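hey can u run this one w/ zinc ion bound, need the C-alpha cells asap thx
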Amino acid sequence: MTIKFYNSLTNQKEDFVPIREGEVGMYVCGMTVYDNCHLGHARAMMAFDILARYLRYQGYKLNFTRNITDIDDKIIDRANENQETIDDLTERTIASMHEDFLKLGLDLPTNEPRATDHIEGMINMISKLIEKGHAYHSEGGDVFFAVRTFPEYGKLSNKNIDDLNPGSRVEEDGSKKDPLDFVLWKSAKQNEPSWDSPWGLGRPGWHIECSVMSLENLGKHFDIHGGGPDLLFPHHENEIAQSECASEHKFANYWMHSGLLKINGEKMSKSLGNFAMLKDLFTSYHPEVIRYYLISSHYRSSLNFDNESLDQARSALTRLYQAVSLAPSKESDFHDDSVKEFIDSMNDDLNTPEALSILFRLAKSINSCQDTHDQMMYASTMRELGKVLGLLNDSPEAFFQYGANLTDEEISKKIEERNQARDTKDFQKADQIRDELAAQGILLDDSSDGTTWKKS
Ligand code: ZN
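ok here u go:
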C-alpha cells in the first residue's frame, strides 16, 4: 500500500508519488522568533516531525527544510518593547526554541535557513517578478505583487479573486494599484533594520521569504509544503503566486496543514492570556506526555486542550511504559502483523491514533502473556514502532519519576477524586487516577479504613 496524504491543494487524499524516486523534498514554515514557543506551535511542528520520521522510516532520503523568520514587524516591536537589539532578541528566542524542540524530540530539519541570510535571493526574485510584469514599485516606495496578474490566485484556499474582500483582508494602502496586492519589499522606516536594494533601503515582506528559502534549499519544484492552519491563506496562497510567477513552473505538489489547537474551547490569544507555554508544561510533564497528547489525535483534527488533557495523556503513556518495563529489555524479533498494521495506519494520511492503538494492543499482549520470548518480541516491536512516533525513548524508571513532586495536599486531592469516581462506579477514571499517581511514584493502598499512600 502506498502512502496517502490529504492534499489541501486538491482537498482529497492522494497517493504520494515523489518527484524523484526514493527522495522527498519538504518545506515547512517555521517560527517567527520573538517569543518562547507555546503548545500551538508544538502542534504544527509535531505534525511535520511525525511526517519526517515516517518518511525516513519508509526509507526515503528526505530534505526537510524548515525556516526561521528572523525579521518581521512583531520582532521589531518586541525588541523595542524589551529595549534590546533585534539580534539579541532573535538569538535568545532561537536558542529557546531549539531547547524546547529538542526536549519534545522534534528531529532537526536538514536545513534551517534564516530569512536575513537570504535577502539577496529575495531581491532577485522580486526583480524577476517586476521584469515579468507581476510586481511593481509603487509611488510610496514599497514593491507590491499584482495579484490579478496570476489568474490561478486562490487555488489553494478555494477563493475566487472577485469574491475576496480586500477591506477585511488586506490593509488599504494608497500606493497599491489594487487593494488585493500584497507587499514584497517594504521601504525602510526610521530605526528599522534595512538592506540596500534596487528600490532603496528596505526589508522583505514575509511571504517572499518562504518562496526564496524553499527555492534555494529545495529547487523551484518540490514534493511537500506544510504549515499551521492559519498559514493557508493568505501566506501559502501568496507563496504559490510569487513562486509560480517567478519560475513559470508548478511550486509544491502536496500541501499539508495541521489542525487548530484551542484552549478550553477558545482560540489561544494574548488578550485571553491562555497560552500554554512549553517551558511551563515541561515542569510538570515529561516531554513525551506532551508529544503523546499531540499525536493521540489526528494531525488535521481540531484539538481542544484543557486541564485534564495532559493527565490523561500521562496515564495512557504510563500504561505503555509499564508494559515495556515488564519485559526483559533485550532485542528480539518483531511481531510482523503489528508492524504491518502500524504501517497501514500511518500510510492512511498519518493516522497516529490508530497507530497508537496498535501499541496498546502490544502492551496488552505483554501483560497477559507468560512466555518471556513472546514478551520480548512484543516489547521490541513496541519500542521500534514507538521510535517512529518519538515515544518510549526514555527508560521506564526515568519516565515514572519525571515531575514526581506532588505535594501531600495534591495527593490527597487526587485520592479524594478517585474515591468519588469509585462511588459513582466510574472505574475507568478511578484506575486512571491510580495509574497517574503510580507514574509519579505514589502507590495507593486500599483497606477498609480507607486509602493510604506511600512513595515507591
Ligand atoms: Zn512560510
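The CA atoms of residues 68 and 114 lie 5 Å apart. anyway lmk if its weird
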